[in-house]
Amino acid sequence: MKPVLLAAALLFSTTALPALAQDASKPPAATPPAAAPAETSPEPAPAEAPAPAAEAPAAPGEAPPPPASGVMAAIDSDEVPVISLNLMSGQVKELQVIGADDEEIGEVNAVLGDQNGQPQAVSVEIGGFLGIGAKTVILMLTDVRLDLGKLRTVLTKNEIENLPDFGG
């Protein structure tokens, strides 16, 4: 009886234990395919754009948010925090914008967010008189800071006037 139990234990340890020791959360390592011979070309490969900075990592077991696209829309709620300015979106609207050359640029029309609703930019109405001849430009939140109740930008008035019209 003992030799049969010993043989069964030996058989179990050689076949079942390696399978039990595997971590189910990690897929088995795949062997890389054989490397193909490199072709030489006279032209250098075009440089790829760097990947966008990742947002805060997701908690374990939680799927990360989808990457934001380049499309932004006005944030309707006045209660969305604009973390970089330490204000709520409603407090940012109608703030005066001052250029790097200390000239008054215009007034914030709206806070713009990405597809996840995170504030990314502000739209600013510049130029014109009583809305006639004015145009709307977009300033990224990375280009502005709060300074004594106004938004100060790193751009000059001339640089901002040369920005394309947002029209939205």
UniProtKB/TrEMBL annotation:
Signal peptide range in chain numbering: 1-21
Biased composition (Low complexity): 50-61
Domain of life: Bacteria
Keyword Signal belongs to the record: yes
InterPro entries per UniProt: PRC-brl_dom, PRC_barrel-like_sf
UniProt keyword Signal, yes or no: yes
SUPFAM superfamilies hit by this protein: PRC-barrel domain (SSF50346)
Keywords recorded for this protein, A-Z: Signal
Region (Disordered) location: 22-73
Domain PRC-barrel: 92-150
Pfam families hit by this protein: PRC (PF05239)
The protein, known as: PRC-barrel domain-containing protein
